[in-house]
Amino acid sequence: MNFRFTLDNKRYHTYNYFLRTKFGGKVMKISLNGGFTCPNIDGTKGIGGCTYCSSSGSGDFAGNPSLDIHRQFEEVKAMMTNKWEGKYIAYFQANTNTYAPLSRLKTLYESALSEKDVIGLSIATRADCISEEIADYLKELSEKTYLTVELGLQTIHDKTGERINRCHSYADFLKGYNMIKERGIPVCVHLINGLPGETHEMMVETAREVGKLRPDFVKLHLLHIIKGTKIAEEFERGEFSLMTLPEYVSVICDQLEVLPQETVIQRVTGDGKKEDLIGPMWSLKKFVVMNEIDKEMVKRNSCQGIRV
């Protein structure tokens, strides 16, 4: 079976394929920390954040927020590139990166864009933290650079959302998503597999419904249990179990089959710091996970979008 969006025999539309065909070469994301908080951390909507969220606001590999953007950029680039030279996307990753006055957003974003060889921005946020004012500014920004807005949805199921203290509904997500899409700005939707109480069918349903929205990008993650989080306490009390590797591979392949071929899959698994990870420990073998997904797609004689 030949899949048209591939350079390396993958059966799904990889981010590597997208970046190389769009920009003509290798592009690397540089993760930054703008020192933001979140409305369900500071008490505006909730306290403590999502139950799985680490103390770094899921920006474990981002820069040091005590440093300015220039110094963060240089430090992270030096750590990641190892003398590799190319183009970069500045990635505001930790916490909610549109949750601040517009003047502050402009200062941080435009500082990152001024760095050498930066060809775009990626801004991770919550859909309920997109106002009309911010959306209008993001549209202006997207006319100057390659901009992607990343929205953390995780699941379409509001019952799960309540359990993980997400503090916004799927309807809230759709409102923010549409504000961004209506302005022609590329959107990446984050999904997490293995959330407490979710079945295989629920995870696939989330992917299917998100696919109907025709997002530009999707990130498929595994739930990591990180030390010091609320969900770690729930896990240690035996309130839910972790996915096995075969279960995860099966879910990912089913999700890929119901996502449109044009949607770029930025991730099929995620990273967790080894020293902070409680489980699943198999997730540390990232390339093994990816290889198992590839093998299962071949075994099925399947590809992304085959069931759309």
What this model shows, in words?
With 308 residues, the protein is α/β, with parallel strands linked by helices. 36% of the residues lie in helices and 17% in strands. The chain is built from ten helices and nine strands. It has helices at 15-23, 69-81, 102-113, 132-142, 158-163, 170-181, 200-212, 230-236, 245-258, 286-300; strands at 27-32, 87-92, 118-125, 146-154, 187-193, 217-222, 225-226, 264-267, 277-279. The longest helix has 15 residues, at 286-300. The protein is globular.
Keywords:
308 residues; 7-stranded parallel sheet; two-stranded antiparallel sheet; 10 helices
In whole angstroms, the N-to-C terminal distance is 17 Å
Report helical residue fraction. 25-40%
Briefly note the structural class of the backbone: alpha/beta
Please report the number of helical segments.
10
Overall spatial form: globular
